[in-house]
Amino acid sequence: MKFVSSFKKNGALQSSRLENMRKHLEDRSLYALGCCSELLLSPDDTLLLSLDFYGDDNSKKPRKKAIFHHKFPNHNLNVEAVWPGLFIDKAGNYWDVPFSTAIDLASLASDSGASYHFCMHHNAGQPEQLGGEETVEVPATLLPGISLRSAFTLKKNVEIWRSNAKKLKMVQPFDIFLSNPHISASGIIGAAVMACFGNNSVRPQVVDKSQQFEGFYLHAPAVKSTLLVDTFSSVSFTAQHGNFQRLLLDLTRFHARLDFPSGSKFLSVATRLAQDFFNSQQPTMETVQAICPKATISFQQQIAGPFSFRVDSGVEIDWKNKDWHMRVDDPVFSIEYALHVLGSAKAVAWYSPNASGIHGRTSLF
């Protein structure tokens, strides 16, 4: 009797699982159909056209996109138009913008030296929130209007050590860009300017004072325009061991980056801390946390052959937690498969606790 009862119970559980699986497969939001065509207009000009259909009820209209790309001798030009455009804010809410265009001009990337980037973005129509049950305020950057953004940066790379050991003969590395053991560091300092004209020029209300903008700010409500100017910097460190040629444990790579997104905010908080120390006052936890840079770490380890394990995560200091002040922010775990036949290409399966399910992608370099 126990066997029959157990069989009936397990059978009912199995049937319930199959029923749930069937319901998930019938969910139209899991399916999408996309059509894409890339036209080579000239050796330096390409035109990409795409049309995407989604099965969920929130996307009743197909999403259309057109991207024109032109190669200058020392610059790249991109002109993009999407209707409707799909955007996501910092809180994870999705938004539909009826029509969005962008013109992007950037100097070619280099290991060291100066570079600049100019972008003009235009939104038309009132944004609509997708999905979320709660009604939240529309992000100011998605409101109708024109925004002009420009950034200028200076980058310097320093090679601390590079291995001179000979590689294995007649053995191609699984990835040519990961075949040189080395230790290096780099630093970036730059300035950013943004001018907005239209409804998107409204400055959003900041609830968290630690996130408040401290740079140069000019707002003219009469003509609906805003001007923002600030500086930023970044410091990174990379260390790699192994040539990624052998079948086992021939690649160990570590990368860390510290970002200072607002130079004016950093100086303002640093001045506040100096005043607290000078006046023999204990600084608040919010002040100490505000001066800390945003840290990002990455670790990659070869498992066997072209397979390697990689973890990427942000690291933040949380003084409110008395037991452990370090907090992991948005970690991503992935398994990479190097397509060494193509020189430097990989297929990636990744998982993030903040995202639903396991995802995959293929990258070519």
UniProtKB/TrEMBL annotation:
Entry-linked InterPro entries: TGD4-like (IPR044160)
A molecular function (GO) term: phosphatidic acid binding
GO terms, biological process: acylglycerol transport; ER to chloroplast lipid transport
Domain of life of the source: Eukaryota
Residue runs in coiled coils: none
A single cellular component GO annotation: chloroplast envelope
Bilayer-spanning residue ranges: none
PANTHER family found in the cross-reference section: EXPRESSED PROTEIN, PROTEIN TRIGALACTOSYLDIACYLGLYCEROL 4, CHLOROPLASTIC
Name of this chain's protein: PROTEIN TRIGALACTOSYLDIACYLGLYCEROL 4 CHLOROPLASTIC
